[in-house]
């Protein structure tokens, strides 16, 4: 998985995810457009990276349904 993030500055601000004032964080932009020049605490930044990493993993095809096997397209 590749994710491009631009760090504009570090310092303090109001955290985008929690709405709380943070004394330690960074102002970032994600190239996917989800965050644009917004402040995130370090904890929120790590949480958002983990979330994006989990979303990037492909889901496994459902191989069995309640009424029997389902053909998996190849």
Description:
- This protein has one helix and five strands; from the N terminus they run E-E-E-H-E-E.
- With 74 residues, the chain is of the alpha+beta class.
- Strands 1-2-3 form a three-stranded antiparallel beta sheet.
- A hairpin with a 2-residue loop joins strand 4 (64-65) and strand 5.
- It starts with a strand and ends in a 5-residue tail after the last strand.
- The mean pLDDT is 84.
Describe the secondary structure blueprint for this structure.
Blueprint (H helix, E strand, L loop, with lengths): L4 E10 L6 E10 L7 E4 H15 L7 E2 L2 E2 L5
Antiparallel strand pairs: 1-2, 2-3, 4-5
Features:
74 residues; alpha+beta; three-stranded antiparallel sheet; two-stranded antiparallel ribbon; 20% helix
Spatial strand sequence of the major β-sheet: 1-2-3
Q: Please identify the structural class as seen in this structure.
A: alpha+beta
Average pLDDT works out at 84
Q: Biggest β-sheet, characterized? A: 3 strands, antiparallel
> End-to-end span in angstroms?
23 Å
Roughly how much helix do the residues carry, as a percent range? 10-25%
What is the β-strand count? 5
How does the overall form come out from the CA principal axes?
Answer: elongated
Question: How would you briefly describe this protein structure?
Answer:
The protein has 74 residues and is α+β, with helices and mostly antiparallel strands. The chain is 20% helix and 38% strand.
């Amino acid at each position: 998985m590749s994710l491009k993030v631009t760090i504009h500055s570090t310092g303090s601000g109001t955290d985008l995810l929690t709405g709380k004032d943070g004394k330690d964080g960074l102002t970032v932009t994600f190239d996917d457009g989800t965050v644009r020049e917004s402040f995130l605490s370090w904890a929120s930044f790590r949480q958002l990276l983990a979330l994006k990493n989990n979303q990037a993993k492909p889901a496994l095809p459902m191989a069995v349904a309640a009424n029997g096997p389902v053909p998996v397209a190849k």
